[in-house]
Amino acid sequence: MDFFALLVVNGLLVGTLYSLIALGFVLIYKATDAINFAQGELVMIAGFFVAALIQLYRVPLAATVAIAVLAMMLLGFGIERVMLRPLIGRPVIAVIMATIGLAAILKGTGPLVWGAETKNLPLPIPEAPFLVNVLDVVVLVSPIQLVAAGVSLAFLAVFGYIFLRSRMGIAMRAVADSQQVAMAMGINVERYFALAWAMAGIVSALGGIIWGNLLGVDVHLALVGLKVFPVVILGGLDSIPGAVVGGLIVGVVEGVAAGYIDPYVGGGTKDFVPYLLMILALMVRPYGIFGKEIIERV
């Protein structure tokens, strides 16, 4: 029972980190109705940038976080202005292919600018795990995972409020529903495209800092984007609560499967179990747990 509780708690903590990256997918999809396949590469670029600020230029952590968030926002604005704004009004597949090309460009740019070797991204957080009593079961919890989970949930709540309660969020949803109708109603589609990519940049900066500390920063950090793709499919591409719930489910299933199956197969279970869960979700509920079901009548 103690072992199972340990796997579940650690899975929940990891799941909140998945939810943070999944939020980047949801933000772009809710505003543009297209999937951003460059989300993992944006996280990688943010990790490289933060590691360079800390290791090469000795910038204090608080200033590093502020600079990274601002830089990734500007990068998001630049990507939208140069690459995606000319695609407004075009078929969604054009935007998707543009993000795939962007992913390839960013994946080559990171190692080219900062080098291909793995870089550490130290944070002033104790590394030694501590004991936590959860329902009379004592489990070991990593401080970095606990802090990262708190940060992830806080930003998920902020972005959820923006989309559900603010005028800006309503306008973004209108743009995603129909760009042509939104423009006819006087909504500045270009502005809300840019805001969506700026928000995705903020998420990438936070994800780069957290995942860079956990995994190290190199070209493989970009795989985090594909790692969380089952999360957004399970929770629903257009749902911020779905990103949270999907992340928690994937984190727990991944952790429990790895804990009980890895000893018999030699490892690697957590690499394919999320995708198996994604396939099952697509078979049963293809629009996700909280996704909006779209019915077209002809």
Largest sheet: 2 strands, antiparallel
CATH class: Mainly Alpha
- Helix fraction bin: over 70%
Number of helices: 12
Total individual domains: 1
- Identify the overall geometry: globular
Q: Quick one: how many beta strands?
A: 2
Q: Helices and strands in order, then pairings?
A:
Elements: H1 2-32, H2 39-55, H3 61-84, H4 92-114, E1 130-134, E2 137-141, H5 143-165, H6 167-177, H7 179-184, H8 189-215, H9 223-227, H10 229-235, H11 240-265, H12 269-284
Antiparallel strand pairs: 1-2
Helix pairs in contact: 1-5, 1-6, 1-8, 1-11, 2-3, 2-4, 2-8, 3-8, 5-6, 5-8, 6-8, 10-11, 10-12, 11-12
What does this structure look like?
The protein is globular, with a radius of gyration of 19 Å. Helix 1 crosses helix 6 (167-177) and helix 5 (143-165) packs antiparallel against helix 8. The chain has one domain: ABC transporter involved in vitamin B12 uptake, BtuC (Orthogonal Bundle), CATH 1.10.3470. A two-stranded antiparallel ribbon has the order 1-2. It has 12 helices and 2 strands, in the order H-H-H-H-E-E-H-H-H-H-H-H-H-H. By secondary structure, it is mostly helical. The longest helix is centred in the first third of the chain and has 31 residues, at 2-32. The model has no long low-confidence stretch (mean pLDDT 88).
